[in-house]
Amino acid sequence: MTTGSLTAGRARFRLPRRQIPVLATLVLLLVMYGIGVSQYQAFSNVQVIFNVFIDNGFLLVVAVGMTFVILTGGIDLSVGSVVAMTAMVSASLLQQGLPAALVLVIALLIGPTLGLLMGCAIHFFEIQPFIVTLAGMFFARGMCTFISGSSIPITDGFWTRMSQERIGDPRGNFVSISVLVAFVVVAVAAYTLAYTRLGRNVYAIGGNPQSALLMGLPLGRTRIAVYTISGLCSAIGGILLSFYTLSGAPLIAVGMELDVIAAVVIGGTVLTGGSGYVFGTVLGVLVLGVIQTLITFDGSLNSWWTKIVIGGLLFAFILLQRLIGIRYK
Amino acid sequence: MNDTMSRYRTMTGHRLFWPAAVLVVMLVANTIYRPGFLSIELKDGHLYGTPIDILRLSAPLILVALGMTLVISTGGIDLSVGSLCAISGAIACMYISKQPDQNSLAVVLTALAMALGVALVLGAWNGVLVAVIGIQPIIATLILMVAGRGLAQLITQGQIITINSEPFRAIGLGHLLTLPLAIFIALAAALLVAAFTRRTALGMIVESVGGNAVASRLAGIRSGRVIFLAYVLSAVCAAVAGFMMTANVSSADGNAVGLWVELDAILAVVIGGTSLAGGRFFLSGTILGALIIQTLTTTVYAMNISPQTSLLFKAVVVIAVCLIQAPAFRARFTRRRGSVPPSSAIADKPKEQVPA
Fold it and tell me: Taking a C-beta distance cutoff of 8 angstroms, is the pair B65, B268 a contact?
């Protein structure tokens, strides 16, 4: 979103405007962390932050994929089911004794394939993304129980090693491998969106698909690509989740798509597309993670307060986006 | 010959033809699989049988889908209906469970009125967010969808509230004129909505707002007010559906009541031929869509397939119906056929071609 030199004078006003939602999220995150530190002594432990990353690594990866889709003005409801399906497929294949490397490749191919198919249906047959990905969600969730009605444990050596490996001081502060994978995904996604042709096309199409088409940008290819990317991110998220839980369960990650969409919106990405950053999504996921941690630390609050607080935050952020005048369609 | 061809074409071209065909195919397949499927028997003055069950169980979905049809025809969407079902059911059950005499009609009516009142307020909240503040509908209602589940659990304190109230149970399981009461409630709601939208100018106004809200406003229609009303009505429909769902099991579970009903309702509306872009709506199509979804669910249960796996079938049906109705898909098919007119070309289309 670089502004040309001709509009340099106005750019000084415009540039921060675009970033206000992200800055607001950052401030909110710091305030919440500050409240946590002032209320609970154990909260200041660095491990608390690391744990937020460890517990939400897969959510972060999936949210990054969703950011791509939402930036083009679409939506992907299938992510939660695809995450579950990937975990389920890997658990089931490992149980049948396939080598870990092969399972990894197969599991990572399923998500993008489904994403590609959904992208094609959306682009070529002009069916609403909402409906197509809803069908994808039903399909993937149905596949989960089709594979097995109950949860399958994973005992594979590679998976257990990935799950138990602690990077850093094993007795002090550590992160899991999932966190590193999530960081790599975030870095690649941020680079793609900011510096590659695909990323620029994503913003252009989200801003105005008609203008993008008239400019000669590949509308169809980009649209199909974002759903494939989202499918890939969900697949990676599914693998990370199977590292985290060491099992595949048919009903895991139900309703995760809402958490993901909430994280992306709280992170400042506008749902009509064209404006937002991967960094904002990272902050959005962190906000959700810190809310959960705060509620766990408090102990007297029940889990349903998480939902109410997330709903309230969603409202506040959407109102903020509206007030600072990012145009809605 | 030519006459039969053209009549055939007008029939397959009718917007209700494909949904109705899908429903008939499912019923026929069921009857072949289980010959007793269509049989209805009279016991203690009440009719029993699978078709009656399908009608009774689809009543809440029909109600939710009716409200959803109006919201979608204004170009919006209401994701919060599932949470609203849970909230209204929770409030009604909570109030009844606190009363000494749970069977008193006055208690039940008060409970229903309270729950409806809250639903009105929440519907108005959705309406204000969309029509006054101008937030995108999908996200405005997402707020209540997420927070609403939390509110429902807050009302029930995370417990499953069981009640023992005959009048309340009747909403879901009672009978009237040998048929389940729920069917009549859904029918009455459908007729009421149909009368208000099709016998007055209201339907036309709703469609014009959905087609172009700004142009309608310039033409003298208060677009904001119409959109606001659609959300309030959707909330009320969802609340009544919530009563039915909780009455069916005589208990309120903040987590489970109305889970995914918003998705089923949107599917029913889309299967019925209403475009998600707004501007046109078909109440009869919506009801047909709701029946298709409930028949599918019942079929899958009857075949001893787990409820979760039934989603697989749902996905295939959704994609099939959407593809058949998608203009782009039809056009693609016609082009390949050359001079054959579009409607008859689709008629020959084998279902296997659907990428699921």
Answer: yes
- A20-323 adopts what CATH topology? ABC transporter involved in vitamin B12 uptake, BtuC (1.10.3470)
Spatial distance between the Cα atoms of B270 and B280, rounded to a whole number of angstroms: 11
Reported as a pLDDT band with limits 50, 70 and 90, residue A2 is very low
> Which of B276, B312, B323 minimises the CB distance to A142?
B312
Domain over B49-327 is classified CATH 1.10.3470: yes
Contacts of A261 in chain B (CB under 8 A): 142
Domain locations along chain A: 20-323
Determine the residue among B297, B308, B321, B333 to mutate to test chain A binding: the one whose Cβ has the most chain A Cβ atoms within 10 Å: B308
- Higher confidence at residue A44 or residue A267? A267
Restricting to A residues 205-234, those with a Cβ less than 8 Å away from any Cβ of B are none
Q: Which pTM does this prediction carry? A: 0.81
Band of residue A170 on the pLDDT scale cut at 50, 70, 90: low
Which residues share a beta bridge with B46?
B43
pLDDT tens string B194-236:
998 888 888 888 888 888 888 888 888 888 888 999 999 999 9
CA atoms within 13 A on the CB side of A201: 18
User: Which residues in chain B touch residue A120, judged by CB atoms under 8 angstroms apart?
Assistant: 355
CB contact under 8 A, B356 and A131: no
Which chain B residue shows the shortest CA-CA distance from A329?
B136
Residues of A within 8 A of B270 (CB-CB) are 131
Q: What is the DSSP string of B115-161?
A: HHHHHHHHHHHHHIIIIIS---HHHHHHHHHHHHHHHHHHHHTTSEE
Contacting A residues, span 262-291, partner chain B, CB-CB under 8 Å: 262, 265, 271-272
Contact criterion met (CB < 8 Å) for B326 and A127: yes
Show Cβ contacts of residue A102 under 8 Å, excluding neighbours closer than 6 positions: A93
Q: Is the interface score ipTM higher than 0.90?
A: no
Distance CA B138, CA A318 (A): 12
Tokens describing residue A185: 């995904």
Q: Give A257 to chain B, closest Cα distance, Å.
A: 11
- What is the residue extent of each domain of chain B? 49-327
Q: Are B260 and A258 within 8 A, CB to CB?
A: no
Q: State whether residue A320 sits within 8 Å of chain B by CB.
A: no
By the 8 A CB rule, do A149 and A94 touch?
A: no
Check: CB of residue B135 under 8 Å from CB of residue A328. Answer: yes
Query: What single-letter amino acid sits at A250?
Result: P
CB contact under 8 A, A117 and B355: yes
